[in-house]
Amino acid sequence: MNSVYDLVVIGAGPAGLAAAYEAWNKGVKKILLVERSSETGGILNQCIHNGFGLHHFKEELTGPEYAARFASMLKSTGVEVALESMVLDFKECEDGFKTVHLVNPKDGFCEIKTKAVILAMGCRERSRGAIGIPGTRPAGIFTAGTAQRLINCEGYMVGKRVVILGSGDIGLIMARRLTLSGAKVLACVELMPYSGGLARNIAQCLNDFNIPLYLSHTITDIIGKERVEKVIVSKVDEKRKPVAGSEIEFECDTVLLSVGLLPENELSKNAGIKIDRRTKGPFVFENRETLTSGVFACGNVVHVHDLVDYVTKESETAGKGAAQYILSQQNSGASFNLKDAVEVLTDENISYTVPQYIHKNTEEKVVSIFFRVRSVYKTDALIAVYKTDGKTKTRIASFKREHMAPGEMEQINIAVSQFTDTQNDFKILVAIEKPEEAE
Amino acid sequence: MKELICICCPKGCHLKVDEKNDYKVTGNSCPRGEEYGKNEITDPKRTVTHTVRVNSHTHPRLSCKTDRTVSKSLMFDIIKELDKITVNPPVNIKQVLIKNVCNSGADIIATQELV
Amino acid sequence: MNYDVAIIGCGVTGAAVAYELSKYNLKTVILEAENDVAAGTTKANSGILHAGYDPKPGSLMAILNVLGNEYARSVCKKLDVPVKWCGSFVCAFGKEDDMTVKELYGRGLRNRVSDMEILKAEQIKKLEPNLSDKVTSALYAKTAGVVSPWELCLAFAETAVKNGTELKRNFKVSSIKKIPCEQCNKEYKSAYSITSDDGQSVNASFVINAAGVYADEIHSLVSKPAYKIKPSRGQYYLLDHEANGIVSRVIFQCPSNGTKGILVAPTCHGNIIAGPDAVSTEKDDLAVTSKGLEYIAELAKKSVPSLDLSLSIRNFAGVRANSTEDDFIIEEVPESKGFIDFAGIKSPGLTASFAMGDAALMLLEKAGLHIEQKKKFIDSRKKIRFAELSSEEKVELIKDNYTYGRIVCRCESITEGEILAALNSTIAPVSVDGVKRRCNAGMGRCQGGFCSPRVIKLLIDSGIEPENIMQDKNGSYIITGEM
């Protein structure tokens, strides 16, 4: 391992793989891709099911196959991959370079200097403790990803009778996986009145096996001395509070929790990267640069994605952005002047957008804005994009959608010519309106 | 008229299949959806993904799949067959692990590389 | 097998007594019902080292608290137990509480607590800016601290074992019979045969009953106890490192309306802890309840209004060994000579543990035990904590042993080397939580979500069958079979 690089990419899951590959293709030569596991691929290695790559490769692949494509693409480059390597911290230096500290069994504790960093650390699962389910703390409570790892990578069965909390895609996929592995899945319990997962997964993971889905329900008690013995599931009201008297008892030995993913930004926070509370990831520009010059971010560490194909796209953007930064000898080391950026605002119907800022002088002709809505739209809705100076607003684009849901990330593409106006101070506002509200 | 969700891609189109009218499919956005709709009523098919045992301490499981869809009724039988075998490294992606598993017409192929 | 002393229970009390006794030429055995030490109340409390102003002057609690607090400084250093001497505030919210604070101060003086001060609101705000504006005064005790209670218990127990003490785990005492002294040691006037529920048996001339919430049941095996244990369960919130720094000291509330109030405190692992409540329960009821959590949340906000409980990474509960007596029950049982109770050890039991060895020695000598100090005694213990090392130390460590270069628990930066050290330690863990208690793997914000499969693999490599790997106690299996 060298001590100086142009680019360090932290994480060799789908995000890091694509970002490193793109940066190489765009001319960056000294790239170090750091991965804590003994192989690249990240979470894809345990996602043995289908559903990956339909957009990017025009083929339906399993997770490991998708990862393998990138691993082999990377083999043809000079990107250096450091496996079993954990980044302990990184920080900005006065001269604009970044210092990265990492550790691995072969090279030991290393200090690395680099021009740019791409954050691709992915996310972690929300645990039982974080949502405060009452009851005892017996064995047999797993987050879906942990159970998936034990089953798919180690070959161990985690239980015989399972109740799953959370109907997002991970919970649904595990419902099928557990059933095919010989367990009985008694129920999938969902707090919201709608499932957060894809309709196709409801069909092929629940309906295929007659697993009941309990919407507007949650687990209110876990009972068991040393191992789970039963759970109590209760209906919840509009305020998502348990309704007394609605308790259903399930005798089971396993609880699987699929209750949310959290971008893993410990390294980012320690380095002083500004984090958006709405996404729990760094604020980023359209080129995926964070608010710290020379630090880029992509993938689940920025915001939790639904499809790996979009992670790849976003990571290519970050790789390209990092390459431009490195090759243009930019290393001012100063944090941005946000006056050179257009902030993207949202109305109360949208939880967040990525990017949160757009460079006024971006070279792109079109900027993609990704966002999630706060509630389900079952009928026609209008996505309206405005230019606003705080007092008045002018519509610059609008898009119709037949159906939107919080579990499905939306994308709109805005022509940059709409805001080449660099004179005044203005922001972009993305709002959801009823189609009749067209002005 | 049967209503079902197409599982061919993440879009999950809401299909309507008229079994009384030659299984005519509506609601699909592509031809694969039409084929899926027809099959789902007459002979539902699925891709099976699973893992098999490997003779390796560091990599004890190898992920694999059927190389095409198989009759849904064969899913658990196929899983049973897969649970019987153990593979040895090296294995390439797309390497056939079991040919024509359970007479389904599909091979089991590896989806991971093992060095 | 004949022993001089049998200690029933390897919680912090039993372990502390074992540590002290291991300094002398004695044949000692610790009998622990569970598969690991610190399995009961010891691992589920606030970890506070109290200054000692609270207990009634002259009581055993008061004497052992203050003595224990004093001993704690050198013992934690010697045995490498993580401790933070952060000090504590007892906060007053109004005139009535102000009186209580003054009363506690006076009591502290009588208990010989040093370094105490009564602070006014402005001084409090300067030292702890996140405390409520409604705090009117506070008793500041500089000698208070926070320790890792299970690590303390492990330190005591490991050192005792290193010095020749025997530890029998999975020994659930089911009967204790008086036997003729000749069958054990005719030098002494007492002898007992102690049997487990699965047929194991030991003989000992003296018995120390440190069985926690089950002390009255153990006592009843020899004679009718004069006391009864009244189990009282307390729940907690444990907050992510992000909350670290919201308070720097242990923040108590004045007891009011019959309740003790709850505490908000830093832990020595860099977390924030809030709790406990107190509810009468069964001895083995460790459930966390939504009512209890709501109660704690409300009271916690009273002291620290900006406390963000959404940063909670874990809730847990422990059961206190409250009893029908007000004070610790530490005495030789009159009808059963040689049988010594260490019962009803509720708060300040953890602080007092450092002095329990002294108490045990005194009572054992009084009961006739001959003691002779060992010439050679290993009175130190050192652990490698990778995350705390300097860069240079990390470099050297990994060069020496590459397993320290592989991080397994990413939330707490715990290396494979530390986990292997834990697996090979004096009292080897048999469970995932046992590994956690020895090296902190799994203690972070993902609560083992990432590292537990890796820890399980290391436990299997150490020789335990997959289905026999426990989450914690016997019966808490994780894996039901192989695919």
Question: How would you briefly describe this protein structure?
Answer:
The complex is a heterotrimer of chains A (439), B (115) and C (483). Chain A is 19% helix and 34% strand. Chain A contains eight helices and 30 strands.
- Number-wise, the strands of chain C total 23
Number of domains of chain A: 3
Indicate the CATH architecture of the largest domain in chain C.
3-Layer(bba) Sandwich
Q: Total number of helical segments of chain C?
A: 12
CATH class of the largest domain in chain A: Alpha Beta
Enumerate the spans of chain A where pLDDT stays under 50 for 5 or more consecutive residues.
Answer: none
Classification by helices and strands of chain C: alpha+beta
The CATH architecture of the largest domain in chain A would be: 3-Layer(bba) Sandwich
What overall form of chain C do the CA principal axes indicate? globular
Write the topology of this structure.
The complex is a heterotrimer of chains A (439), B (115) and C (483).
Chain A: E1 4-10, H1 14-25, E2 31-34, E3 50-52, E4 61-62, H2 63-75, E5 80-82, E6 86-92, E7 98-104, E8 108-119, E9 123-125, H3 128-131, E10 141-143, H4 144-154, E11 156-157, E12 161-165, H5 169-180, E13 184-189, H6 199-206, E14 213-214, E15 217-223, E16 230-235, E17 248-251, E18 254-257, E19 261-263, H7 266-270, E20 275-276, E21 281-282, E22 295-297, H8 308-327, E23 341-346, E24 350-354, E25 357-359, E26 366-373, E27 381-388, E28 393-401, E29 410-415, E30 427-433
Parallel strand pairs in A: 1-2, 1-8, 2-5, 8-22, 10-18, 12-13, 12-18, 13-14, 23-30
Antiparallel strand pairs in A: 3-4, 6-7, 7-8, 9-19, 15-16, 16-17, 20-21, 23-25, 24-26, 26-29, 27-28, 27-30
Helix pairs in contact in A: 1-2, 1-8, 4-5, 5-6
Chain B: E1 2-5, E2 14-18, E3 24-26, H1 31-42, E4 45-46, E5 49-54, E6 61-66, E7 70-71, H2 75-84, E8 86-87, E9 96-98, E10 108-110
Parallel strand pairs in B: 5-8
Antiparallel strand pairs in B: 1-2, 2-3, 4-7, 5-6, 6-10, 9-10
Chain C: E1 2-8, H1 12-21, E2 28-31, E3 48-49, H2 60-78, E4 83-84, E5 88-92, H3 95-110, E6 116-120, H4 121-127, E7 137-141, E8 145-147, H5 149-162, E9 166-168, E10 173-178, E11 192-196, E12 201-209, H6 215-219, E13 232-239, E14 250-253, E15 263-266, E16 272-275, E17 279-280, H7 290-303, E18 312-320, E19 329-332, E20 339-343, H8 349-366, H9 391-400, E21 407-409, E22 414-415, H10 416-423, H11 432-439, H12 452-461, E23 481-482
